[in-house]
Amino acid sequence: MSVAGIARELNERGIPCPSRVDRKRNPHRSGQGWTLNTVATILGNPRYTGRQVWDRQARFDDTTTGWAISKKPAHPALVSDADFVAAQAIRAARPTRDGSVRVYLPAGLLLCGLCRRRMDSHWVNGRSGYRCRHGYNSTKPRSRDAPKNLYLREDHLLDELMRQLSTRLVFCA
């Protein structure tokens, strides 16, 4: 099931979202229902395996910094390590309707030059690409002053990368 499908299912079942259950910790959220971002964040959070997690915030000046995750459980797990790893594998390589898996070569490595957010990989018109929606998601209307979406085709991106590298590399015999 997709992240959107999970959010829809939770809302249809009337299962309260975290911000509705814990208003004190989430006064800035509406608490009206599950969102795509909430579901995606929960699915990708190793804390639900019982581990303590530190340094989770994205850093635009140092994208190589990884999360620090405790080796031993710090609290009771809500999901097993095996189920968590399986969910990450499914999210990383979602099969298409015909069963094939799409590969996005620089996925997770591209930052938008306008807003510095990490670009999303996506499939459109039969090819892979990357996009930045500048903070827009499908649960909120876009503000009038928000920049338009940025789209890059992967083949164009890789061609330009190879062109740039070929003019800067020196090969030794």
Description:
By secondary structure, this protein is an alpha+beta fold. The chain is 29% helix and 11% strand. The chain is built from five helices and five strands. The chain has helices at 3-13, 18-21, 36-43, 81-92, 154-168; strands at residues 53-54, 68-69, 120-124, 127-132, 150-153. The protein has a three-stranded antiparallel β-sheet with strand order 3-4-5. Strands 1-2 form a two-stranded antiparallel sheet. A hairpin with a 2-residue loop joins strand 3 (120-124) and strand 4. It is globular. The chain starts with a helix and ends in a 5-residue tail after the last helix. The model is unreliable at 60-64 (pLDDT under 50).
Structural class: alpha+beta
Helix/strand order, N-terminal first? HHHEEHEEEH
Number of strands: 5
The oligomeric status of these chains comes to: single chain
Mean pLDDT, nearest integer?
A: 77
- The order of strands across the largest sheet is 3-4-5
Query: Rounded to an integer, what's the Rg over CA atoms?
Result: 19 Å
Helix content: 25-40%
The global form is: globular
Strand percentage: 5-15%
What is the overall number of helices?
5
